[in-house]
Specification:
Two copies of one chain form a homodimer.
Chain A lengths: L2 H4 L4 H15 L4 H11 L6 H9 L7 H26 L3 E2 L2 E2 L1 H5 L1 H20 L4 H23 L8 H26 L4 H28 L2 H4 L5 H4 L5 H9 L5 H7 L4 H12 L3 H19 L7 H15 L3
Antiparallel strand pairs in A: 1-2
């Protein structure tokens, strides 16, 4: 299974999204061209626009609405990456220098604002106020969630529930908006909208858990960023939370966070996790979300897009970067 | 003439906006309350929501639409302030510590995102897609303009035209959106929408020029920030541009900017401006924009709101902070 075979039913649509992203970065504003191009050529898998197109193919597949929507979803996603890297002061993403690393945090902040507002403008062009509002509410949820994460950095008093809420805000919310918007714009009946939204939410939860596992067991070259980044930045993820659960009397995270993510301490904790059954347990939890995503699709007609959504759920669990 | 007497015809509306801002900062998200309250209690004059209400009172004055719109305009404005202070790394605004000064730039960035998206959500509640889109396009224009300003910091190769374009993006665009949105939501005929938009644009131009004059001749205690901040940060404003025009052979700004806004050099330039007729000339230019704003209203019915808009144009020119 490759991502290309999964995207097969929506290939022409995805190409149009790619075209429209390219058009967009050629903005009339010469001083924007370079940072815009840099922000949009991420080498990412374009999962979110693909979700919108796939979710939009169960009813009226209207590309005139779905292309601006999918393009907007990708602009929005890239805006969040540009802002997150500025907040985290990260200099690398997927092995490439970040906008804030190259041009400074001020440029990253303003470029992100430009991308957010452009994505909102593009969604307005669908003429559908419901998806416009959904979009605004997604950014509310994401920024509030990221703010909570930032303010609770290096705080080890967090449990699974806190973690699930955080990854819902930061990742699952945009996945579910991507599928929900596709469904709404294809004039799907409400149960189908709900089902596809539900799929997106659970897929996003699984996706983020796998991301957090890879931050512990991944390979620096493949990840394009240092292993253990989350712990170094004081972000508690599922593997670390399970480790704390397994050591109720003697919290191994406490020392790491009290030393503000000291590298040697972080490496010690990573070793503890790797030498325990925690990674397997995290994969089981991710697989459970992924299975719930697939179950959400049960009431939808069987067609190539449903097959692709099911395959995508497997693919994202098995990925290595 | 006081600001209270100018706001007289819209007092009840403005009080409702104040209430709704207070409600907003009591968000259900406990970790947001303090920074939100801090960002919204600016002690500002609430000019932009007042403009929306005044512009909305020539036709159908529908507070159910105008209150969320005016509240959104103020949230949006405060979002831009929070982001600008983070970009400029300013620690003071109107004598009060900034969000980025108190909580850091990451918090300022995310809080600004939350304010922008909340304002967009609130505009969506009017159900009017035209104003929603106008809103998104205003942020596009503002962030692109601010990015241009940031990238041209300490560049003395800028003329009046560049300056007018910059202040149009950074200030006049939101003034004109405030009046245009008020007009649209009150179902004004298109010529009236155009007239009120035009008023807002010219008022915003005049307002920013006066701001830039005060940065040169103002009093630190009244301004709540150091005199000469613009030059220290490498931003060319009208007084400095006129000074360059008056010294074509021997540019007095060159040395300042080549030394990245060295304080002694900045003070020397401020003295040169103060001892010349430049300030008077800048006031003449601001007054011309203000007069153009007033002329734009000529076709509108004579009523207390028109009087207030005319008075506001005088008031903003005469202000000292």
């Amino acid at each position: 299974m490759t991502i290309a075979s999964i995207y097969e039913p929506i290939q022409p649509g995805l190409r149009m999204v790619e075209e429209s992203l390219k058009e967009f970065s050629k903005a009339d504003l010469p001083w924007m061209t370079e940072p815009l191009k840099h922000a949009l050529e991420t080498g990412g898998k374009r999962i979110r626009p693909a979700l919108t197109l796939l979710a939009g193919k169960f009813h009226q597949y209207d590309l005139e609405q779905l292309i601006p929507m999918s393009t907007a979803i990708e602009l929005f996603h890239n805006a969040t990456l540009v802002h997150d890297d500025a907040v985290d002061k990260s200099s690398l993403r997927r092995g490439k220098p970040t906008v804030s690393g190259l041009w400074g945090e001020g440029v990253a902040l303003l470029l992100g604002d430009y991308l957010f507002s452009s994505s909102s403008d593009l969604v307005c062009s669908t003429g559908n106020l419901r998806v416009v509002r959904l979009f605004a509410q997604t950014l509310m949820k994401m920024s509030a969630g990221q703010l909570r994460e930032l303010l609770s950095a290096y705080n080890w008093r967090q449990n699974r529930q806190d973690y699930y809420e955080r990854i819902d805000s930061k990742t699952a919310s945009l996945f579910s908006t991507a599928t929900e918007a596709g469904a709404i714009l294809s004039k799907a009946p409400e149960e189908a909208v709900e089902a596809l939204k539900n799929y997106g939410h659970n897929l996003g939860m699984a996706f983020q858990i796998v991301d957090d596992i890879l931050d512990i067991i991944g390979d620096e070259a493949e990840l394009g960023k240092p292993v253990g980044s989350d712990l170094l930045q004081g972000t508690l993820t599922l593997p670390a939370i399970l480790l704390m659960e397994n050591h109720p009397g003697d919290n191994p995270l406490r020392e790491v966070f009290e030393k503000s993510g000291d590298r040697a301490e972080v490496e010690r904790v990573i070793e503890m996790i790797r030498n325990s059954p925690i990674v397997e347990e995290c994969y089981r939890i991710a697989a459970a979300f992924s299975a719930q995503a697939c179950r959400a699709l049960e009431g939808l007609p069987e067609n190539p897009c449903r097959r692709s959504l099911l395959d995508l759920a497997d693919f994202l669990i098995a990925r290595r970067k």
